[in-house]
Amino acid sequence: MIEIVSAQACIACDICIKVCPTDVFDRGPDGVPTIARQGDCQTCFMCEAYCPTDALYVSPAATPVGADSPHADEDAVARSGLLGGYRRMVGWGQGREAGARRDRNPLLSAVPPLPESALPVPAPVCDRMWNHPQPSG
C-alpha cells in the first residue's frame, strides 16, 4: 500500500497520478501529489516504478500501516534504502541494470513440438438453439 510521497524528492511531474489504476492520488496545492484515497491502493507498485526521482514508497502491507510504523516514517524508509526501492529492484532508471538482464532462469530457445491432440474430435453441431430440450406440447 502506498505510504510515502517525499515532498523533497518529488518534481511534481504527475506521473504517479497518471499511472495509478485506482486514482489514489490528488495533486496538492504545491503540485506534489497527496495520498487521497489510500484504501483504494492495490499495492501494484506502478506509481513507485514510474516515479523518475524515487520519491515514492509502496509498503508490501495490504492495509495502511499505523503512524508509528517504520513504513510510514520517511527518514527511516530513506535510511534503509527502500524509498524508490521497487524501481531500483526492477532496474528502472538511468544507470541501473534491468531486472530481466539479471535473470538467470534457463532460457527457452525453441518451443518443443506438441504431441498429437489427445482430445476427441469436436462435438457435433446442434441444430437447435443452446442445445436445450424442446418444450413439449
From TrEMBL:
GO terms for MF: 4 iron, 4 sulfur cluster binding; metal ion binding
Boundaries of every 4Fe-4S ferredoxin-type domain copy: 1-30, 31-61
Keywords for the protein's UniProt record, in alphabetical order: 4Fe-4S, Iron, Iron-sulfur, Metal-binding
InterPro entries: 4Fe4S_Fe-S-bd, 4Fe4S_Fe_S_CS, Fe-S_Ferredoxin
PROSITE patterns the record matches: 4FE4S_FER_1 (PS00198), 4FE4S_FER_2 (PS51379)
Lineage top rank: taxon: Bacteria
Pfam families (UniProt xref): Fer4_9
Keyword Kinase (UniProt): no
Protein's UniProt name: Ferredoxin family protein
Organism: [Mycobacterium] manitobense
